[in-house]
């Protein structure tokens, strides 16, 4: 979870409980002193630092999330490989090999790659491209449904349409990937994400064929989550009617918790900014009334007056902040009961 919501603290805590802890690279360097002068370098050095901090805190599995839409996708991908990430999750676009990374490193290294998709069509496009161009296919796939938090890979009108529900698209993605398991003689786990909140939800999606789940929202309300206490409290205090869909300046819908900042923006207020770094290739900064990177960084630091929190559709169900250990135990107990 970006910006700065899932860094080494949350990732290592999750890895210590047997999960895959994921460090988000989205604007990871925003908290570095040289971000304004050299944002590309700040992002790279922040990722290196967070990877090393996480490794010092756990012997478990550490992943890195990189969005294709990031301007420095290639260089962050390289750093993730150099630092020995166990897996790279590639979202917000069609996952591809950075030009600078050799095919040998991609195919023979220890770092796995898992694209994040919102449809079977996207999974097919990626697998076909990889198979044709790299004679290699990704090691896993995350299928993210429309109940997820943050930027969504759907058009606004698709979000509530049952044809695009996770229950519907998960089996379609599994079928799209299946032929490549045979062709490349490897198992390609499909991981379900978006709105998975309880142990019963986990079982529901594993019964539908998922081999794992990716959870975000519920892990925000943990002591170890890297966001400020104000960000976590926004989750604890929100009601169902506060969860809203915004039109993000990067040209995608996003799910967030309504607040004064978002209300002012939707009423036409402009929040002046100077863009030091076009962090997302798709950002329509000339048309935008605010800088989403700045708004999300402010929120991460606790300044929700000048920012807002991304959140999944279930954020209103969060009622307290717990430890990652307690949360994982609860989820396992719920699985048992179900
Ligand atoms: C605060 C927040 C930040 C997120 N940031 C990212 C991100 O940087 N990259 C990404 O691929 N997905 C991001 N997501 C989506 C999550 O990784 C995840 O797939 C999704 O939210 C899962 O649904 P859940 O929140 O209902 O568990 C974010 C989600 C949240 C709630």
Structure report:
It contains 12 helices and 10 strands. It has 338 residues and is α/β, with parallel strands linked by helices. The strands form 2 sheets. Strands 1-2-3-4-5-7-8 form a 7-stranded parallel sheet. The chain has a 3-stranded antiparallel sheet with strand order 6-10-9, with no helix packed on it. Helix 2 links the parallel strand 1 and strand 2 (61-67). It is globular. It starts with 7 loop residues before the first helix and ends with a helix. Flavin mononucleotide (FMN) binds at residues 1-2, 5, 24, 26, 65, 67, 91, 116, 144, 147-150, 193-196, 214-217, 310-312, 314. Flavin mononucleotide is lined by residues 1-2, 5, 24, 26, 65, 67, 91, 116, 144, 147-150, 193-196, 214-217, 310-312, 314.
Strand and helix layout:
Layout: H1 8-16, E1 20-24, H2 39-57, E2 61-67, H3 73-82, E3 87-91, H4 103-108, E4 112-117, H5 120-134, E5 141-144, E6 150-151, H6 166-183, E7 190-193, H7 199-207, E8 212-214, H8 217-220, H9 229-237, E9 243-247, E10 253-257, H10 260-266, H11 292-301, H12 324-337
Parallel strand pairs: 1-2, 2-3, 3-4, 4-5, 5-7, 7-8
Antiparallel strand pairs: 6-10, 9-10
Bound molecules: flavin mononucleotide.
Flavin mononucleotide binds next to strand 2.
In short:
The chain is an alpha/beta fold and 338 residues long.
Q: What amount of the residues lies in strands? A: 5-15%
* Average pLDDT level: 94
Major sheet attributes = 7 strands, parallel
The helicity comes to 25-40%
Oligomer: single chain
- Helix/strand order, N-terminal first: HEHEHEHEHEEHEHEHHEEHHH
Strand order within the widest beta sheet: 1-2-3-4-5-7-8
Helix tally equals 12
Distance between the termini: 28 Å
- Strands, count: 10
Contiguous low-pLDDT stretches (5 residues minimum) are: none
Overall morphology:
globular
């Amino acid at each position: 979870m970006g910006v700065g919501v899932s860094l080494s603290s949350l990732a290592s805590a999750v890895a210590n409980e047997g999960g895959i802890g994921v460090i988000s690279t989205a604007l990871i360097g925003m908290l570095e002193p040289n971000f304004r002068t050299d944002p590309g370098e700040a992002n790279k050095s922040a990722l290196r630092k967070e990877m090393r901090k996480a490794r010092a805190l756990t012997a478990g599995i550490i992943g890195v999330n990189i969005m294709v839409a990031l301007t420095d996708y290639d260089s962050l991908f390289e750093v993730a490989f150099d630092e020995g990430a166990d897996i790279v999750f590639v979202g917000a676009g069609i996952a591809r090999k950075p030009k600078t990374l050799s095919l040998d490193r991609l195919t023979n290294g220890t770092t796995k790659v898992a694209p994040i998709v919102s449809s079977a069509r996207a999974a097919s496009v990626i697998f076909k491209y990889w198979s044709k161009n790299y004679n290699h296919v990704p090691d896993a796939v995350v299928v993210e449904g429309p109940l997820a938090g943050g930027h969504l890979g759907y058009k606004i009108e698709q979000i509530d349409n049952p044809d695009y529900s996770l229950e519907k698209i998960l089996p379609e993605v599994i079928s799209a990937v299946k032929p490549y398991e045979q062709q490349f003689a490897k198992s390609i786990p499909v991981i379900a994400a978006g709105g998975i909140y309880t142990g019963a939800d986990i079982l529901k999606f594993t019964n539908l064929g998922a081999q794992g789940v990716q959870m975000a929202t519920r892990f925000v309300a943990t002591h170890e989550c890297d966001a400020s206490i104000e960000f976590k409290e926004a989750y604890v205090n929100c009601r169902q009617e506060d969860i809203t869909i915004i039109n993000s300046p990067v040209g995608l819908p996003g799910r967030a918790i309504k607040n004064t900042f978002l209300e002012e923006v939707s009423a036409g207020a402009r929040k002046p900014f100077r863009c030091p770094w076009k962090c997302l290739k798709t950002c329509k900064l000339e048309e935008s009334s605010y800088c989403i990177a700045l708004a999300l960084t402010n929120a991460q630091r606790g300044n929700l007056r000048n920012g807002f929190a991304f959140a999944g559709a279930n954020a209103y169900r969060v009622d307290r902040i717990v430890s990652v250990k307690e949360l994982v135990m609860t989820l396992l107990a719920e699985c048992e009961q179900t």
